[in-house]
TrEMBL record:
The keyword Protease does not apply. It comes from the Bacteria. InterPro entries: CheY-like_superfamily, Sig_transdc_resp-reg_receiver, WalR-like. PANTHER family: DNA-BINDING DUAL MASTER TRANSCRIPTIONAL REGULATOR RPAA, REGULATOR OF RPOS. The modification 4-aspartylphosphate is found at residue 59. This is Response regulator transcription factor. It holds the Pfam family Response_reg.
Length: 130
């Protein structure tokens, strides 16, 4: 059954170049269009200047502007307000999870992540059948 719909897009905000490349490769293999942004300042500029993606995968600890603030900026922009946000971070204390969810994130994934679990969470957030 051919799929005539354009590929869903994912904005990946990750300052670790290796992890960013792994995520990009992983999502592109699944047929997603991926935009990589390497720090909080670039993410803020991207949110302000571009159309919303279908999903944002966002690191918490970023240079310049942290992930919690990026979530607030995404949620404050009407065109982006409904975009699912998955936060990905090495900070996995309960308070960080609560802070991410309270800021407006839809899900929180701790590093190191399991690729299949991350893909399943992305599919769920995008409501894509497995």
């Amino acid at each position: 059954m051919p799929n005539d719909q354009p590929a869903q897009s994912i904005l990946v905000v990750e300052d670790d170049e290796h992890i960013a490349k792994v995520l990009s490769f992983m999502f592109e293999r699944q047929g997603y269009r991926v935009t990589l942004v390497a720090d909080g300042r670039a993410a803020s500029e991207h949110v302000a200047a571009h159309d919303a993606p279908d999903l944002v995968l966002l690191d918490v600890m970023l240079p310049y502007v942290d992930g919690f603030e990026i979530v607030r900026r995404i949620r404050a922009r009407a065109a982006w307000a409904g975009v699912p946000i998955l936060m990905l971070t090495a900070k996995n204390a309960e308070q960080d999870t609560v802070r991410a969810l309270d800021a407006g994130a839809d899900d929180f994934i701790a590093k190191p992540f399991q690729p299949n679990e991350l893909l399943a969470r992305v599919r769920r957030a995008l409501r894509v059948p497995a």
